[in-house]
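Example record for the data management plan.
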Amino acid sequence: MKIFRLVLWAIIVAMALALGWLTYEWQRTENQLAGGPYGTPFELVDQTGKPITEAAFRGRPTALFFGFTHCPEICPTTLFELDGWLRQVDPDGNRIGAYFVTVDPERDTPELLDSYISGVSDRITGITGAPDKVKAVVKGFNIYARKVPVDAANPDGDYTMDHTASVFLLDAEGRFKSTIAWGENPETAVTKLQNLLN
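Corresponding structural encoding:
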């Protein structure tokens, strides 16, 4: 009976610690979303090899998507759809900035990003850089990204990437406003972009 009570108390303490940690993380995320610019400072390069920083996400609203060029469906579809939505909401292409940040910098060179994106859109800018710097940006923007081997028996062989598939919408000060989910109704997506301009 004494062991049972000790185990029960250990479980209660562990649950209390877990609850405290979850509350802290939730509050930290809420503060980040409600307060200043979303994400983290960075120094990367765009698809032409020019330096780019978080300052690109200031001065006008931003649509921000994290993906990779070897993505079989989600990334090319999202780029194509985002380009179409932007053409409806911002026909001249100067009121909303749009960016595609790679989660696979080992393969996604500026040249590859340029070829990949320019085949779909002339208003979305690709961003890549050194793997450690890109990883810090992915983490700083609370993006889930994980390398997944194509063949589990060969973990060092070809791979794909699991990643967050939402488009993040930031206001002109870089503050988080909302997301466009993968598979979102196109009319809803357009409305969200319109709201970003208001």
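Summary line stored alongside the record: The two ends are 64 Å apart (CA to CA).
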